[in-house]
Amino acid sequence: MKLICLLFLGFTFFGFAQEPDSLQVDFENESYIYIEGDSIPKSSIVLDEVTVLPKLKFENYWANKRYLILRRKTLKVYPYAKLAADRLESLNKRLETLDRKSDRKAYAKKIQKYIEEEFSEELKKLTRTEGQILVKLIYRQTGKTTFDLIKQLRSGWRAFWFNTTASLFNISLKETYDPIEVEEDYLIEDILLRNLQSKDIEGLETALDFNYFEAHKKWSSQKTNAPTNKN
């Protein structure tokens, strides 16, 4: 696969250099390339980095089917996790400009109320497993648990209450995200990377520090079975 990728890049570069709107010239026996719209000659062209994701192998048809179900659920809730990360970044930038504690608290409360009013009805439609995946993805995007984010925006008591309520539905707001240690998290990461690469979704860099290929090496040596949850 890597050889095919290198050959493809080679053909791409060769085809680009032969385009009629580019001109290759020689200054003192060194080749330069003029690109249309660019007045500065270039001695080389930097190509975008391409990451070749390994092919997943499943034990059987049912394992593959469970992966597809996890894929559907992950892609459904990912936009909400991305929104949470976007809003948190905007919130923190705004809070840095406010000096008084009362102003900071009022603004944080305003943002949380806006998010709750705009998306609460949609979030209520999520199943238990979709809700838990959302909690994991929020941690992936922000590096903080949903419990800690609520605690940060409001009070510790409110965070405790939310977590207690969520636990009634078997959802933990303290859930983290670790593709190295948790197989489901690895599969979710695989789903995200493949869809980010195909541009089916837009993404943010994860706030966490882990190596996908290390996770793949670990879990591919074991039975790759997606979660069996049906909710």
From TrEMBL:
Top-level taxon of the source organism: Bacteria
Keywords: Signal
Signal peptide segment: 1-17
Entry-linked InterPro entries: DUF4294 (IPR025636)
Name of this chain's protein: DUF4294 domain-containing protein
Organism field: Aurantibacter aestuarii
